Every structure is written in structure tokens, then in C-alpha cells.
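We emphasize that the prediction below concerns an isolated chain of 553 residues; any contacts that depend on oligomerization or on bound cofactors are therefore not represented. The input was used exactly as deposited, without trimming of termini.
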Amino acid sequence: MNTQKLFLFIAIFLTVFLLWDKWELTQSIDENGNIITKTQIVGTSSSTEISDVPAPSDVPAPSDVPAAELSISDESTPTISEPTNNGAFTTVVTDLLTLQISHKGGTIISALLNEYPETLDSEERFELLRSAPGSIFHAQSGLIPAEKMPTHQDEFTSERQEYFLQGNNELIVPLKWADNNGVTVTKNFHFKPNSYVVEVDYLIENNSPADQVVSSYTQLAHGTPQKSGGFLTGMQNFNGGAVYNDEEVFEKIDFEDFDSSPKISSVGGWAAIIQHYFFSAWIPNDKETHTYSTKSSRDKYLLTTVNPSSRIASGSSATIGKNQLYIGPKEHIRLEKLAPGLDKTVDYGFLFIVAKPLSVFLHWIYSFVQNWAISIILVTLAIKLAFYKLSEKSFRSMAGMKKLAPRLQKIKETYEGDKQKIGQKTMELYRTEKINPAAGCLPILVQIPVFISIYWVLIEMVELRQTPFLYLPDLAAKDPYFILPLIMGASMWFQQRLNPPPADPIQARIMQMLPIVFTVFFLWFPSGLVLYWVTNNILSIAQQVYINKKING
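Result of the prediction step, given as a C-alpha cell string:
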């Protein structure tokens, strides 16, 4: 493989990669403009309604609870219905979150992220959990068995309609439920400052004549993503369910696979629904065994966690549940501290082994310079320095080939039509001049995983969302004036001029078209990503010009 063909191969590979990244998935965009699904959602797998309350058979039974006690009829469990926020609710405001907790079941029907505007310069906050018609995203929780305990379908009462987190104090928001047999349940929501976590537990007071065997469950309910098309409407990112288990396995679950995905039993773990930049996850007790399952019915997708049962003796009380709910951005530093594996929600693609260290390094640079654009430039410079010796071999090979170009052309003209003779004389020339046309192959191939990894790092960084730089209003959005993509295309074209042209005229024409093709691609790419490519191209040009001058004297 000669150098020209290698560069053609790499260029075609990158083109195919970008095409794949755009076309692999059918895009869906919600009402907030977020890409929210990986593949096209097609209706439902079943025409019948299913219960959205877990069955008692899903409960992991502890050793002190006889199996017979868990065999409770499931006939009276309610069916899936479209939740609304028309009923009574309690508003909770913290420094980071503004929540609406419905009195029907204590379901969180709305969650605004106070530090993230809906759009650039908007006064409206980004709404992660929502009750928009046809596109709900709710955090549900409750107790089973359904005929004895309150589920997310039952009515609670609240003493206040509004709660505000003050200072560094913990805020507890209670909702109450009682039956006619002496059982009282207080569903407590715990909030702390500088936290996207809501802790939910249940205080059960059993004044009934019989012992109660109770289990808590948590659930994320998502509506059908709205279908949308378009090749150049934005970057592709996974949206769907995810489960992490005690074997450190992180499994993504597409919405259309919710009915076919098997139940998972795990000590600890967590369950989440993920979208670009933000997600919500239920994190149960890491010392207990839990059952994770998914199901769907028409316009509803449910990701459920069922916790072990507890016995509350007659005349006694106990607090159970203690599940954590994360509602917030994909900030990997914050996530690492919260739960094992939760940082895997930041999607680094198939090269995560390379991408994650790059992300950590980028954040480390930012801790000093406090500017994300400059951090990207410095990381690009560091990568170029790390690969300097490898790149130098490649550039020296290309410079040598360019120097020999007239003599190679003369050989072609002299032995025109005799491919064997042309090949023989060409190899003799390489040996005489001590040039290895394949010398630059390995260095360039080694760098490809790094290029792809930094690509995934930058498109997943919530920190770039609505971050300005110079004339750019948002590093996570396209360049509004297309200046950076045009500079990228021009730098790519100039870099080609420094290399020897391919001998094959068809290859030469393809190479000439690539700057135009890449420029069109990059017109709609996030400007932070384009900034990386521009910086990389400029540094490569400077390095190649320097090496060419050294060779040519």
C-alpha cells in the first residue's frame, strides 16, 4: 500500500464513518428539540392493555418471608392510562431543580433543571421530566401488593402546595395515604443542596390486626418518541433505557425492545432512561437484590425496578424503600461519585477505552484554563505532540514521495503500457533513494481511534451546551455563520497540496472532492467538534511545512 492510497483509504473511511453516524439511526426529536430515539418506533407489540403496577411475582423474596405470602392476586391492578398534570400537585424548588409532584401516586410529573435554559438566552428552564401530551416522561414509585398498599395510581394528600430548599438544610416533603384498616403510609421526598438526587422512602405505620408484607418499586414511564426526519438536523445520540447490574454490565435497551428484554436480577445496580446530555435514573439500595424489567403498551414504555419485601408486624412501623432518583445532566465527575457505573450513561461509543481518558484529560485542562474552547485547542495540541514522532515519519515519507514525483512520472511515460516494467523501475527508484512509501501507514492508522474517540467525547459533553466562544454562541450547536467549517475545508484542501497527488486520475479526482464533501458534513456539526478538526488540520499543516523545509533544505 503506497502513501497516496493509504490517505485515500483513510479519507474514505472517515467519510463512511460520518455517513454511518448520520444514517445508522432514524432520528426522532421531542418537543424540546432533543434527539430521543435510536431507531424508528413502530406502534406497539401488543394491542392489549397491560398493568403498569408490578406484579407480586416480581418481588425478590427474602428468606424470612414465606413464598405463600407473596402469592397475592393481581386481578385488581390498574391498567396503563395516560397520566396528566391536571390534578393536584406539590411544587418543590431547590437550587438545581424545580419539581411538580402529583398527589396521584406521588409521581414526579415535571422536573426543570434550573441551571440549564431550554434554548440559548431563554428564560425557560430545560424540562427533563414532563407531561407534554403524547411525550410524557415521569418518575413513578409505589408499594405492592396493589390491593393493600398505595401504588402510583392512588391518591395522596399534602399539607402544603409549595416547598423551598433553604440554605444547607435537608428538605423533606411528605405525602400521606391511609386505608380503612389502620395502615398509614407517609411517602417522603428528601432534597439536599447542590444535588440532582431525590431520595424517596416510605414510613409505614401498621395499626391493622395483621402483619403486612410490603415491597416498594420504582418506575420510569416514557411516551412514544415523536418521529422526525432529516439528514442534517443534528447529531445522533442514543435515547432509550439502560440497566447496570452487579456484574458491572451496562446494557442499553432500545424502546422497541422493551417487550423482548428479559428480567434482570441484581444486587444493587440501577435503571435509567437516557437522552442526549440528560437522563433520569432510579438507584436502589446497593446491598439488596432487585428485579429490573421493561415492558410497553401502545404509547407507554416502562422501566421498572422491584425491591425486596419487608414484613411490618401489627402495631409497629418501619421505613422502607430509600430509593434514589437522579434527574440531571451527564456530568461524569458528579456521576462517578453517586453510584458505580452511572458515568457509563455518558456515551463514548465503541472506543470508550480511549474516549474516557481523553474526556478526563479535557476536564483536567479545563480546571486550569476555565474555558472549554481553549481546553479543546490545548487537548488537540497535546494529542499532536504525543503523536509527533509517528506523524513525522508519515510526513517525511510523503515529502520524499513528492520530491520523487517528477521521476516517477517520467518512468510512467517511458514504459507506458508495461505495468510490470513500471513497477520494477519504481521499486528500484525507492531502493536507490531509500524511501519506503509505506512508512507512514502505521502512524496514521494508530491515530484513527483517537480521532474517532475525541469526536464522541465532544458530542456528548453537556458542558459544551450553550457555551459561547468568540463569535460562537454555542459550542454544542452549528456555527451560525459557517466560518469554522469553511476554514476546515480550506485547511484540508491546503493540506492536500502539500502531499504528492495520486498517480491514478480517478483517485486524484476523489481526493479533490473530499474537502468539499467534508465541508458540507461539518456545516451542521457542533462548532466545538469543528474547532477540534480545524486546530488539528492547522497543526498538521505547520508540522508538515516544517518537515518539508528540513528535507528540501
